[in-house]
Amino acid sequence: MNCTSLDQQLCQVALENSPLFIGVYNPNSHEFIYINQTGLAMFELENLAQANSFLLEGLRNNEGLIQWELQVAQHLQKANEFCLDDSFTSPAGAKFWGRIRVKLLTEPDTARGHWLVNLSDIQEEKHSQIKFSEGEARFEALFMHAAMGIVMMDNSSKIVLTNRFANALFGYDSGELIGMPIETLLPTALSETHRKHTEKYLHKPQIRPMGIGLDLKARKKDGTLFSVEISLSFFEQNGNQYFISFINDITYKKKIEMEMILKNQEIKKLNESLEQEVMNRTNALVETLKDLEESKQELELALSKEKELGELKSRFVAMASHEFRTPLTAILSSASLISKYPKTEDHEKREKHLHRIKSAVSNLTDILEEFLSVGKLEEGKIEAHFAEVQIPDLVNDTLADVSNLLKKNQQLRVEHTGDNELFTDKSLLRKIIINLCSNAIKFSGESSCITIRTQKLVSHFVLSVQDEGIGISDEDQKHLFDRFFRGVNVTNIQGTGLGLHIVAKYTELLGGKVSISSKLNEGTTVTVQLDLV
Q1: Which H or E run includes 198?
Q2: Which candidate, 209, 208, 228, 210, places its Cα nearest to that of 218?
Q3: Is 493 exposed, middle or buried (0-12, 13-18, 19+ CB in 10 A)?
Q4: Which of these, 9, 23, 229, 333, could form a disulfide with 35 (CB 3.0-4.6 Å)?
């Protein structure tokens, strides 16, 4: 290097021992006239000639060198230094990020004197910038795409940021809420009250749920109100406090809770009705006993009836306690577990328990319907109302109602012969079909077939339901139409023992009779024959 204008010791100390790439570039000759050893080592070069060839040859071939020099010269005429961050590559192909700085050494009026060029490695700084940018992008994705409404406000209660879910939840366009007071999202009647609570919270902020035990409402852009759950949080940035509301729409949850309350009330009423029915019957028995005390024969008859009713009551209590325990336990456990899944992502778990509750309530309703039917039959409150009925239509409509009870791969097959019209009570015949088909489905295995046959003859009508189920023993067939009787081979299958008793009573009202043909493990056929007037 020609150092006639520079002190030799300064060149040695300031240039050669610098940890940075330092070079002196002559824009007139378009080449470096000096590069220190640090600079050569940075690009894995051995000498100045090799450096000029590697660093500038590519620019010369692409006719970019002159443009680069003009860009630097024009900048140096206006400022003391030219600075640029760029990616650099060594001869071996290793890439790194560097910050190149160019300063004018002489002739400041022309900016065409020698240039002092230094290059620093900013690889770690660039990586930090990239990581920071990626972190910002992840934060934005988490914030903007969160499956709950997020609203941020400053210490003056003005909204400063909302995510997409919040905008959609309240019916606003993106950015429309920015700058509005937080009371914009509240019921108008509560604005002043909320403002006072907000002042207290801003004075002593905490991370907590909002309005515990209260039915919180929020207001959409169109003025409609909806139920919400809100959690509050806060943070500081650059000396400023910000407050965040996490908002969930719980309208559907409230609806389900109300439905559960109504169902529980309905069950309570049904239980009270059943208790009253038992009480009424007990009172009737007491009155009967008082009347029968007049004679020994009447007393013996009363005692006999009392014994029968007592046995019936014991069987009823034993059966009812067993049949009610399972659905009530399911309702209680599911109702308790629902409260443990408050989050939006727990929706599928909540639906599962709600389905269990609905199924259990439906089961209780069926059981109570059987009890009430027996009570009405015993009291003579059910009468037959005859009218013309289309047999195929009645059968198909009825089977559609029981099809949801079918087990895996079970099939219902229908066969009809004779005329289609029948003069009978449509409701009672429908209940008979439902009871018989329900039993056939319940006591038959998967992939089995249940056959429903109807035949209209001149003098009578025949209905038969044939299954391929577990069958009934000869001994049990003698008691099938007794109240609460259940065969020894069905104790592990849910039921009240009232189904066939009810079928027999309904058949009597229609002027007919019921018969059963069955063998263990081969199936059962129940036949209802109605005499035609």
Answers
A1: helix 191-203
A2: 228
A3: exposed
A4: 23
Give the chain's mean pLDDT: 77
CA-CA distance, 276 to 270, in Å (whole number)? 10
The span from the CA of 334 to the CA of 407, in Å, is 24
Of 282, 275, 321, 273, whose CA–CA distance to 305 is shortest?
282
Closest CA to 2 of 20, 29, 42: 29
Instruction: Residue 91: name the closest of 46, 21, 43, 32 by CA.
Output: 43
325: helix, strand or coil: helix
Are 185 and 170 within 8 A, CB to CB?
yes
DSSP code of 189? G
- Give the length of the chain: 533
- Predicted pLDDT at 421: 92
- Give the pLDDT of residue 449: 92
Residue 41 backbone class (left: φ over 0; alpha: ψ -120 to 50; beta: rest): alpha
Q: Is the dihedral of CA 61, 62, 66, 71 positive or negative?
A: negative
Does residue 293 register a pLDDT over 80?
no
CA–CA distance, 41 with 90 (Å, rounded to integer): 10
Radius of gyration over every alpha carbon of the chain, rounded to an integer in angstroms: 45
* Eight-state DSSP code of residue 409: T
Q: What residues contact 466, with CB distance under 8 A and at least 6 apart? A: 440, 450, 451, 453, 523, 524, 525
**Residue whose token pair is 């009737």:** 284
Write the CA distances from 371 to 28, 274, 425, integer angstroms: 110, 8, 21
Counting other chains too, the contacts that 235-238 makes at CB distance below 8 Å and 24 or more residues apart are none
Q: How confident is the model at residue 314 (pLDDT cuts 50, 70, 90)?
A: very low
> By the 8 A CB rule, do 303 and 338 touch?
no
Greater model confidence, 17 or 512: 512
* 431 has pLDDT over 70: yes
* Pick from 512, 521, 451: nearest CA to 487: 521
Neighbour-count burial for 24-36, b at 16+ CB within 10 Å, e otherwise: bbebeeebbebbb
**On the CB side of 217, how many CA atoms lie within 13 Å of its CA?**
11
- Express as a percent the part of the chain with pLDDT over 90: 8
Cβ proximity of 35 and 55 under 8 Å? no
Residue 126, CA distances (Å) to 97, 99, 132, 276 in order: 7, 10, 10, 82
pTM value is 0.38
Tokens of 260: 């559960």
Structure letter (DSSP) for residue 208: E
Place of tokens 């140096």: 76
Give tens-digit pLDDT for 137-155. 565 655 667 778 888 888 8
Alpha carbons 358 and 260: distance in angstroms, whole number: 9
Q: Give how far the C-alpha of residue 525 lies from the chain's centroid of Cα atoms, to the nearest Å.
A: 45
* Euclidean distance between CA atoms 122 and 104, whole angstroms: 23
